[in-house]
Amino acid sequence: MQSWSDVAVPSVPGVGPPLRLYDTADRQVRPVTPGKTATMYVCGITPYDATHLGHAATYLTFDLVNRIWRDAGHDVHYVQNVTDVDDPLFERADRDGEDWMVLGMRETALFREDMEALRVLPPRDYIGAVESINEVVEFIEKLQASGSVYVVDDAEFPDVYFRADATEQFGYESGYDRETMDRLFAERGGDPTRAGKRDPLDALVWKAQRPGEPSWPSPFGAGRPGWHIECAAIALNRIGSGFDVQGGGSDLIFPHHEYSAAHAECISPGRRFARHYVHTGMIGLNGEKMSKSKGNLVFVSKLRCQQVDPRGIRLGLLAEHYRQDRAWTAEVLQTAQERLALWRDAAALPSGPVADDVIARLRQHLADDLDTPKALDAVDGWATQALNYGGSDTAAPGQIADAVDALLGVPVR
Questions:
Q1: pTM over the 0.70 mark
Q2: Which of 131, 208, 345, 346 allows an S-S link to 386, with CB 3.0 to 4.6 Å?
Q3: Which among 132, 322, 155 is positioned nearest to 236, based on CA atoms?
Q4: Strand, coil or helix: what is 307?
Q5: CA distance 408 to 68
Q6: pLDDT confidence of 282, banded at 50, 70, 90?
Q7: pLDDT of 356-367, one tens digit each?
Q8: 270: left (phi over 0), alpha (psi -120 to 50) or beta
């Protein structure tokens, strides 16, 4: 699957401190220690609708990680999937009376446009579930050989399930108790009441063909992949087990990331699927959680159609800490647009206050678990001083503009 266009990133002299991120599995902020090539897998969209601000906030977060690694001199191997075959896609296509493949291709194209507009650095590998079917089948065969999966006793629909007890460490990534797991599994796409399962928490890895649904051949019969197995197979085949960061929204902690890790660890025993599990907070609208069921999703494409500068959207979503559940309001956007105007005015000056200390603080705040509020404040302080009091350093405005572009992804010149 084609990714979106790359973004030119200015080179900024100097180097910042090593990146530290909160790891969901360890419940603490700790250093990220990549080798020469930093590796990251971020779960992509199910393309039944356009990019809403919750999506955007997640991908902007991991875009900062990408930028910090690049600034530190790392090559970055970033992988992202597209779940372009799944129940929500079929349901939306049926509702609107269109082909599910056409819907998925259209919304994926719109997502790429949104990412380009927001200046998100593209993944090296952008992989759809459909194009990875053979990889998933091969992966399930390995799980079958290890005794980690079984076929339900159902003559009509012999689905294949993963045993939740297949790994001793199941549950380490989320840290949730059984009651919480049961509740979230039922709420987030699981099927705890499916007849023939050995445990309500056993997760679907291959769904046998249903009438009117697409299917592909496999040794287990015609069907299609489950959700969690898709990401595990794509990640293992691109960056291997023990990669640096697995990312996504906090709603993916369980079941999605828990099961993806468990699937992978069954065939790579002794190694964590990812060295860091990093999750972003949810975006609400005027005090309410955004959701398709409430019909209150705010879409990036619609904001762009309203002539909202994507840089303002980006700054609005970075104004609070990435792990915090936060609200999107008209005031948030207005503040972001005012901030963008302040930075652009300061960057256009012929000279300004010395930039080195500001750039050092910008790097320091971002390296400290992506503390964007303090990072934005540091640039605000420089811009305000430059506009109110001037400065003698003719190179400073350009240095600040390059740093803001390279590290925050916001061009101001």
A1: yes
A2: 346
A3: 132
A4: coil
A5: 9
A6: very high
A7: 999 999 999 999
A8: left
